[in-house]
Amino acid sequence: MYARSKKILAFLIFMLLCEIAGLLVLLYIPQPGLVGTNNPANGLFICADGDPPHEHWIAYAPMINILGETVLLSLAMYKAYEQRQGGGRILPQLTKESLFFFAAILGIHVGNLTCWMVNNLTTNELFTGFAFGIPAVLANRLLISVREYAELETIVDSAPSRQLQFASRPMSELVLTDPVELRSFRIEGEF
């Protein structure tokens, strides 16, 4: 999609390293008042984490994901704008699917951030499972969709036809004559 651009690769690796560093700082530097429990309400047994009241420390973890997904969505939007007039057969499908992919994941991370900013122990982890599971499902959907589209184009290009076209002279440049319709086909002889 980006023609194996070394600049894009270096930028994505830099973004990944920054995301890892930010999450390590947020999740592994102890802060006073952080809450971790397996019983946030009477009769509700789930693992729950939370920030101290009126403070948001762990809530910034989804913000790091939002920044990364916003950059990826912006790159996909740029590529879709760049390829709007042409770009082959598969690239428009890939850009359309990647726009859906990154927009959906960005929405999940915004929902996750909203839950963490409200800071209710029973709802803080509401979107966390989706933030981990949905990208894997959408990545498979993206690959399957592009693969099906590529196979569909191949089938259409090589589908059997009832017309034959011949070159004007054998072993010459491929200059096709008018098509000849094939009405019947019979093979005789021993096999």
From TrEMBL:
Question: What keywords are assigned to this protein?
Answer: Membrane, Transmembrane, Transmembrane helix
Q: Where are the transmembrane segments?
A: 9-29, 57-78, 99-119, 125-144
Record protein name field:
Uncharacterized protein
Organism lineage: Eukaryota, Fungi, Dikarya, Basidiomycota, Agaricomycotina
